[in-house]
Sequence to fold (160 residues):
Amino acid sequence: MRCPLCNSLEDKVLESRQNSAGTSIRRRRECLSCSYRFTSYERVEEKPVMIVKKDGRREQFRMEKLERGILRALEKRPVSQTTVEDMLHRIEDTVEMQGRFTREIPSKELGDLVLQEMYRVDKVAAIRFASVYKAFETEDEFIQEIESLTLAKDSSGTSR
Ligand SMILES: [Zn+2]
Fold:
């Protein structure tokens, strides 16, 4: 598979994991020329899950794209590769589960899901992610979201 960094076609697979629905396999790869690590996805061809935005527009859910955003937020954070892989896996599984029948997931729901997972793994990364994530269109909304995550830990129930 072509290395996104140096275009070399020689790589080795570090890890392969299948999602729980059995519909996709993600492989962690390492380029043999430049050691860059990247992920490839192999999927059963089926109707993709669509993200429904606030204004009703739909965009195909792409784990690759989400993963890039997540990894960017985690840059230089003290989080192990394994923890990140596990989190990405849980997110992918949840999206697949929630979109099982309708093949749709509202962008807000997706944002909440990712934010909750990230908040558990690394609070700083969660805040970084939230601040760039498109679903949070206003600052107020973003602050409310962080507050609701903080409150959720005290098991005081959700306000929504
Ligand atoms: Zn390379």
